[in-house]
């Protein structure tokens, strides 16, 4: 989901009890709307994927979505300019309702909330608090109006689910909430981890042969040129029974079962083929692939990967973590230099999240350094993160490396990174990971605009664009 309008971290202090809101200045008649009970909203809710072990989980992450269901009617009554600010009005109303809440207006009709909790009952209570807060009328241009809000959310134990999946599950819950006219809350803790792990180990070897693996691409945008400079290829698994499985759920299994080499070589073959398609359309971009640390010491894999890149004439980059190098620095650095010799661009991924070592950094033949998103997500709300990011950018430039910031989700973060001299950005503000066809459409669209004033068009795409891929 593209996030481009407003993000606000909310203080815990709030002069009203939950559900109690400041009195309005006007007693003008409310814009006629059906009662919430008539629409099937109210306190009706469902919890999907419930598991018997959920009560033992000590920490949860939640992504909730609130959509203005009666936006079309309000726009006709209020006018476009006023209606376009309604999502921001929801953000303002939510201030202080829940400690630690983060709210982002992600479009004219949609607000995203992120929060943590200690148990599922507290999550349900938080959603109810937000629902109650939005139940009261809003004063807009001297009149009181009710906003009919559709709520949906997805919750997962901390560390168990990737950000992408959590957001996608919340979006799926919202689609369900629209059709069923009730609040939908998905619990992603369902299932036995032991059973899931065993089933994945059993199913993974044949997943490639059955065509269950596919790639998504996330663009990396050059800040100063405001154009796509490269992209990262991300592997996904569409399981016939379990649905979409993200890398966090199967990469470790692939490493432990010694299948990571086959999976990575398949990814490389697919990227080379997709890159030929892009090149035929006039877009010769470097595509980056994540490389497991286990493979950096595998001489057979290194030789095969180098041969494929040479024969394919592809512009390929490998993203590696410092932790991967530290496992066996002598072999890793030697093999990274072999990659560099055949023209593979080396990028240091998740810099700062692990054991950042200047001793290794100066030895690696890397041309790009990616700052971990943990420093970017709170760039505009933290005192220390901007200092760390700025010093990292300066260090990388001194070592003749370009810098990419991961996890860019707000215009404010993008503006600050631009001032700091960051070279490239990647994140949901610009694009979520999308299919090759959606990526091609994105590139074609921006190519058409390069002759006019549209070079920054990729910074202005509506949220709906990224739901098409």
In short:
This protein has two domains: 6-187, 2-Layer Sandwich (Alpha-Beta Plaits); 193-467, EAL domain (TIM Barrel, Alpha-Beta Barrel). The protein is 39% helix and 22% strand.
What would your notes on this structure say?
By secondary structure, this protein is α/β, with parallel strands linked by helices. It has 2 domains: 6-187, Reverse transcriptase/Diguanylate cyclase domain (Alpha-Beta Plaits); 193-467, EAL domain (TIM Barrel). The chain has 17 helices and 18 strands. It has helices at residues 36-39, 71-78, 80-83, 86-94, 120-135, 163-180, 193-207, 247-256, 260-280, 299-312, 322-327, 329-341, 358-361, 373-376, 385-398, 411-420, 436-449; strands spanning 6-9, 45-48, 60-68, 102-105, 110-117, 138-140, 143-145, 149-157, 183-187, 213-222, 227-239, 243-245, 286-290, 316-321, 345-351, 368-371, 402-405, 424-425. The strands form 3 sheets. The protein has an 8-stranded mixed beta barrel with strand order 10-11-13-14-15-16-17-18, surrounded by 4 helices. Strand 15 (345-351), helix 13 and strand 16 (368-371) form a beta-alpha-beta unit. The longest helix is centred in the middle third of the chain and has 21 residues, at 260-280.
Uncertain residue segments: 1-46, 49-54, 191-195, 448-457, 462-469
Total discrete domains: 2
How far apart the termini lie comes to 11 Å
> Which architecture name of the largest domain does CATH use?
Alpha-Beta Barrel
The CATH topology of the largest domain is TIM Barrel
Mean pLDDT across all amino acids: 79
Mind telling me the C-alpha Rg? 24 Å
Give, in spatial order, the strands making up the sheet with the most strands.
10-11-13-14-15-16-17-18
Largest sheet: 8 strands, mixed, barrel
Strand content: 15-25%
Number of helices: 17
Helix content: 25-40%
Name the structural class: alpha/beta
């Amino acid at each position: 989901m593209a996030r481009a309008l407003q993000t606000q971290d909310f203080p815990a202090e709030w002069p009203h009890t939950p559900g109690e809101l400041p009195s309005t200045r006007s007693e003008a008649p409310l814009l006629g709307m059906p009662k919430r009970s008539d629409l099937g909203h109210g306190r009706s809710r469902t919890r999907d994927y419930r598991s018997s072990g959920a009560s033992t989980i000590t920490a949860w992450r939640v992504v909730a979505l609130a959509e203005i269901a009666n936006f079309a009617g309000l726009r006709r009554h209020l006018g476009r300019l006023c209606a376009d600010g309604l999502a921001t009005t929801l953000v303002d109303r939510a201030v202080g309702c829940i400690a630690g809440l983060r709210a982002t207006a992600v479009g004219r009709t949609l607000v995203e909330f992120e929060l943590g909790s200690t148990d599922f009952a507290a999550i349900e209570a938080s959603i109810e608090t937000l629902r109650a807060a939005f139940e009261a009328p809003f004063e807009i241009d001297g009149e009181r109006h009710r906003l009919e809000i559709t709520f949906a959310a997805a919750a997962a134990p901390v560390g168990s689910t990737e950000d992408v999946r959590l957001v996608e599950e919340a979006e799926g819950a919202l689609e369900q909430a629209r059709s069923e006219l009730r609040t939908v809350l998905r619990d992603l803790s369902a299932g036995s981890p032991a059973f899931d792990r065993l089933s994945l180990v059993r199913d993974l070897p044949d997943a490639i042969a059955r065509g269950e693996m596919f790639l998504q691409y996330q663009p990396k945008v050059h800040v100063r040129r405001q154009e796509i400079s490269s992209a990262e290829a991300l592997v996904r698994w569409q399981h016939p029974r379990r649905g979409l499985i993200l890398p966090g759920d199967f990469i470790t299994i692939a490493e432990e079962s010694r299948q990571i080499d086959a999976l990575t070589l398949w990814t490389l073959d697919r990227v080379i083929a997709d890159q030929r398609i892009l090149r035929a359309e006039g877009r010769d971009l470097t595509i980056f692939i994540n490389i497991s640390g286990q493979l950096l010491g595998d001489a057979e894999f290194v030789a095969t990967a180098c041969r494929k890149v040479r024969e394919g004439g592809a512009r390929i980059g490998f993203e590696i973590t410092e932790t991967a190098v530290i496992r066996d620095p002598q072999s890793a650095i030697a093999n990274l230099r072999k990659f560099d010799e055949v023209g593979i661009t080396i990028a240091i991924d998740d810099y700062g999240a692990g054991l950042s070592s200047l001793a290794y950094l100066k030895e690696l033949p890397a041309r790009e350094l990616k700052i971990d998103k943990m420093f970017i997500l709170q760039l505009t709300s933290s005192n220390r993160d901007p200092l760390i990011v700025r010093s990292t950018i300066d260090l990388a430039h001194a070592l003749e490396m370009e810098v990419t910031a991961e996890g860019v989700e707000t215009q404010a973060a993008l503006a600050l990174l631009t001032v700091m001299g960051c070279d490239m950005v990647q994140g949901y503000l610009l694009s979520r990971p999308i299919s090759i066809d959606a990526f091609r459409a994105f590139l074609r669209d921006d190519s058409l605009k390069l002759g006019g004033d549209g070079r920054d068009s990729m910074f202005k795409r509506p949220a709906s664009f990224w739901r098409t891929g």
